[in-house]
Amino acid sequence: MLMSPPSTTEILNRLLVLHMRSLPMYLGYAPPHELGRHQRAKAVLDQIVEDQKRTVDRLGTLILDSGGTVDYGEFPMSFTSARSVARVSPQPADRAPAEVRHRL
Hints:
By secondary structure, the chain is an all-alpha fold.
């Protein structure tokens, strides 16, 4: 049995959810505590979040203009563990264990 292709609104909503519920957007709402000590990383994350918010706004406008309903979706539960990823900070190459320095 053949399935009908998704509508334009369904495709736009899928794209909207991919941008609205991405890991950078999640970290923008619930940033790791350690992010405050890494200003360059925070600036990059902030820029990604702003870019994705603009994309979500454009997609939402397209959906509404075509008579559709915007579906924002939900963040995956797996993102809750991503907040602890920032606790692992890389060591400078000269302080890394010898076997790691050899590979650098």
